[in-house]
C-alpha cells in the first residue's frame, strides 16, 4: 500500500532539549556581539521561551544573566524576544510547592555587563 503522505526520515526525531540548549543555543547567547546574526539570536531567544521549563533549574540563571544584554540590540525583534524571555524566566516558580516560590533568588541575578 502506498501512503499518500510522505515524511522525511528526520521527521519525528526526538531531541534532548537540555543538551541541544547547552550545545547550540547557549553558545550563541553567550556571544557578546548582540547585533551580529540577529536572526540567529532571535531564534535562540525564541527557542528558549517554550522550552524553559524543560531546562534544569540550575541552568536557568545563565540565560537570566545573559538576556539583559539583548535588550540593547539594534534589532527590534531581538529586543522584543529578549524582553519576553526575561519576563518568563523571572516569573518561573519552583515546581510542586504549595505556595508559589520563585525559582530565582536575588543572589542568582548579576548586574548586566
TrEMBL record:
<dbReference type="InterPro" id="IPR011989">
    <property type="entry name" value="ARM-like"/>
</dbReference>
<dbReference type="Pfam" id="PF08506">
    <property type="entry name" value="Cse1"/>
</dbReference>
<dbReference type="GO" id="GO:0006886">
    <property type="term" value="P:intracellular protein transport"/>
</dbReference>
<protein>
    <recommendedName>
        <fullName>Exportin-2 central domain-containing protein</fullName>
    </recommendedName>
</protein>
<dbReference type="InterPro" id="IPR013713">
    <property type="entry name" value="XPO2_central"/>
</dbReference>
<feature type="domain" description="Exportin-2 central">
    <location>
        <begin position="13"/>
        <end position="84"/>
    </location>
</feature>
